[in-house]
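Q: C-alpha cells for this one, please.
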Amino acid sequence: MPNGLLAIANDYDGAVSIPERLQKLLAAAGLGSRRTVEDWIRAGRITVNGVVATLGARATCADVITLDGRPVPLAPRPAAREVLIYHKPLGEVTTRHDPQGRPTVFERLPEPRAGRWIVVGRLDVNTTGLLLFTTDGELAHRLMHPSSEVAREYLVRVRGEPDAATLRRLTEGVRLEDGFGRFDTIERHAEGGSHDWFRVVLREGRNREVRRLWMAVGCDVSRLMRLRYGPVSLPEDLRPGTVRRLAPDAVEALVAATITARRK
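A: Here is the predicted structure, written as C-alpha cells:
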C-alpha cells in the first residue's frame, strides 16, 4: 500500500467485529508489524474515529482509522499469506528508504498479491544472507518476538583464535549493555590462520547481537552471514540479490515454529 497509509475499514463480510488492539488489527491486515504500528501510535500519527490513538486503543474494521490524516480503505486480510526468502548481499540496508542513498533490500522484491512486504528481522549493512519478508504482520510479529524463541543460525568469521573457555562463556552468557546474551550453540566450522569460522545459533533478535557477543569476549567479527531463520534455510542455489517465494508447506512450517516455541 503506497506510503504505508492505513485507514477506513468497513467490515467486508457484514459481521460485527470484536475490538482488537490497534497494532494487532493493522498488523493482521499486512500493513506493518506490530512494532511499526506502535511507533506510529507513539508519534501521534494514527487516529480512530477522529481521536488520536494511544497505546492500548482498540478498534474494529468498522472504525475510521487514519494515518497522517489520510484515510485509505483497509483491505481484507489476504486468504493466503505470502513469504519471500531473499539473499541479502553486502552493502544493502534493511529499510525502505535510506537518507544516504544506499541500495535497500526492498528494491529487488516483486509486488505482493495484496498488502505490502514486511521484513522479518533486520540485517545490518555489513551482514549478508537470509532475509524473510511476509505480507502477514501478525506472523512477522510472532517470528520476531522474544517469547517465540525462534532460532537464528549464522556463519561468522572472527579474528583471533578463541579458546575453549571463551567459547564456553559465549554459551553460558556474557553481559551486554542491554542485558545478558548468549549463543545456544557454537560449532567451529573452519580454521584459517588469523581467522576462525564458526556456526552459531541464538534465539533473540537484538540489534547486532551476534557481533556484540563476540566483541564482549575480545573477538572482532570480519564476516557475518545468516544461514537460517526458524525452519527456513538459505538455499545454496539462491544467488546474492535474488529472491524466491516460499512454498505453501514451508510457510505453514514457519507458522508452526512460532506456535511450538510458545508452548515450550
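A few notes: Residues 151-229 form a domain with the Pseudouridine synthase fold (CATH 3.30.2350.10). Confidence is low (pLDDT under 50) at residues 1-16.
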